[in-house]
């Protein structure tokens, strides 16, 4: 496995691989890899001959009061995990390599963005879309892999690839969970023992909400209130609870079709997100 | 020469050409071709084996009170000109082919945009950047050709390709002029006989301004005032006159380095633009 830091170097790696007829799978990450990332690498490995992993903590997607500086990083550990999972090249650029000057423009997302994480993290998805567009232009993979855990991010990236006709397939992979149901996340390391013990109740609440929907409940307000009730007992604070159409992320008081139940919950040093997708037609 | 209307069709044409080892030159236009466009096609023809011309009047770059509906169109004439100039394929998409739904996001230009045409055409360059990004993703050329006449557009597209690492070379070609100096433009057909006779004074004024700069004048205000004086006698109205650094398009009261003198002038049915670039260091 190679590690390259320069844009030109990763391009040369990919060009060389393509010239020998290999197809390219790409897994963009912010590092501090966990089994969720490993599942993305494995999916890419299964479908493609040559797997590129990028590790870049993108300043553009962090707000001024967010956790950019203390976002967890451990490159040596990431390197070992990546090698074991079958990555061919890690692209590990510095901030000046990705942003040699202030960006004179960015992608501005106007749809599916004023809900869920978008409403509490203004500009976040502009930063995500902008860096993913850059990475897709740099790596030029056949297919790129993202986790369903970041459901809004996945929806927006799918929209972006459609909107700008980027020649790549976007692949959404299921959320990987701890044994007790907590969604794997790089930010889980910031939970206290008590918080960690409590945190699986997020997924439990989502599953209960999904059960209500499956049993015929179609009121968005009712489901939100039920989820709220279940999370009241927690030691953290609800950032949002919502039930929206998926992947369009529109609010409708009467639920129908494919919907996403989504929650963001704030502990002392970590904000956790999780979601559950139910297809009302499909499952009834 | 082929004409294709579907995104998939132009992609297949380009893929087939690349597979036989051909390099791709691309000339994006809004049609109603004139000798300016022909010079772009000829430059592409000279450098590349396979030349794609796109003709698409992009609604996104027209403001609500602008001339989208009456923008001149004559596809049959364009087809003849393109064939004669050596185009291999014309990509001629409909609006629904390019924008099947409302765009859920766009490129938002924040630098080099509040001057010249950007200040009188809010959102114009967002529309330009967005459609050019789409066209570059669709066609995936080795090199794309733009006219220096639209100097701000050229600067912003060069910035875009850098900012998003789009794997393409952007080539700026010199403005093509009528014998009397008027810059070729699809909008020239809208000039009355009197306006057409008068219009070359725009280029004359720019040349005079450039002469002053070459002779040592470094005051932006003075040059602007001189240009203003020269255009006062005209039957139209000055939209802007400016002298800026190029290609960064920054305002500085003391001129130095490479600068652009630029003018936009409004006649009854046509808004004309022109510019002149002087390299103060290089020419002194």
TrEMBL record, chains A, B:
The enzyme's E.C. designation: 6.3.2.1
Superkingdom in the source lineage: Bacteria
Annotated GO MF terms: ATP binding; pantoate-beta-alanine ligase activity
GO BP annotations listed: pantothenate biosynthetic process
Keyword ATP-binding: yes
Pathway annotation: Cofactor biosynthesis; (R)-pantothenate biosynthesis; (R)-pantothenate from (R)-pantoate and beta-alanine: step 1/1
Note: The reaction proceeds by a bi uni uni bi ping pong mechanism.
Binding site for ATP: 30-37, 147-150, 176, 184-187
InterPro entries xrefs: Pantoate_ligase, Pantoate_ligase_C, Rossmann-like_a/b/a_fold
Gene3D superfamilies (alphabetical): HUPs (3.40.50.620), Pantoate-beta-alanine ligase, C-terminal domain (3.30.1300.10)
Protein's cellular compartments: Cytoplasm
Family to which this protein belongs: Belongs to the pantothenate synthetase family.
Function: Catalyzes the condensation of pantoate with beta-alanine in an ATP-dependent reaction via a pantoyl-adenylate intermediate.
One Gene Ontology cellular component annotation held by this UniProt entry: cytosol
Cytoplasm recorded as keyword: yes
SUPFAM superfamilies: Nucleotidylyl transferase (SSF52374)
Residue positions binding beta-alanine: 61
Assigned keywords, A-Z: ATP-binding, Cytoplasm, Ligase, Nucleotide-binding, Pantothenate biosynthesis
Pfam family of the protein (one): Pantoate_ligase
Catalytic reaction equation(s): (R)-pantoate + beta-alanine + ATP = (R)-pantothenate + AMP + diphosphate + H(+)
Residue numbers binding (R)-pantoate: 61, 153
Taxonomic path: Bacteria, Bacillati, Bacillota, Bacilli, Bacillales
Residues annotated as catalytic: 37
Protein name in UniProt: Pantothenate synthetase
Binding partners and assembly: Homodimer.
């Amino acid at each position: 496995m190679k590690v390259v830091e320069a844009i030109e170097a990763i391009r040369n790696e990919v060009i060389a691989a393509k010239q020998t007829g290999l197809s390219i799978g790409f897994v963009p990450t912010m590092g501090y890899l966990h089994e969720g990332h490993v599942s993305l690498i494995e999916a890419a490995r299964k479908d493609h001959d040559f797997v590129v992993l990028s590790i870049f903590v993108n300043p553009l997607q962090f707000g001024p009061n967010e956790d950019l500086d203390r976002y967890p990083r451990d490159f040596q550990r990431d390197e070992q995990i990546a090698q074991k999972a079958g990555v061919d090249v890690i692209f590990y650029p510095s901030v000046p390599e990705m942003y040699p000057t202030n960006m004179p423009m960015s992608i501005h997302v106007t749809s599916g963005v004023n809900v869920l994480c978008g409403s509490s993290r203004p500009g976040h998805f502009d930063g995500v879309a902008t860096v993913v567009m850059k990475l897709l232009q740099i790596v030029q993979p056949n297919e790129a892999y993202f986790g369903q855990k970041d459901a809004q991010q996945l929806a927006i990236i799918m929209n972006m690839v459609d909107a700008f006709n980027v020649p790549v397939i976007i692949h959404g992979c299921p959320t990987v969970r701890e044994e007790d149901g907590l969604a794997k996340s790089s930010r889980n390391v910031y939970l206290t023992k008590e918080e960690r013990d409590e945190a699986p109740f997020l997924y439990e609440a989502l599953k209960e909400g999904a059960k209500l929907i499956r049993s015929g409940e179609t009121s968005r307000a009712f489901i939100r209130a039920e989820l709220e009730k279940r999370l009241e007992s927690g030691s953290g604070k609800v950032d949002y609870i919502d039930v929206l159409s998926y992947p369009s992320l529109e609010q409708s008081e009467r639920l129908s079709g494919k919907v996403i139940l989504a929650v963001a919950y704030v502990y002392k040093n970590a904000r956790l997100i999780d979601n559950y997708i139910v297809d009302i037609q499909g499952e009834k």
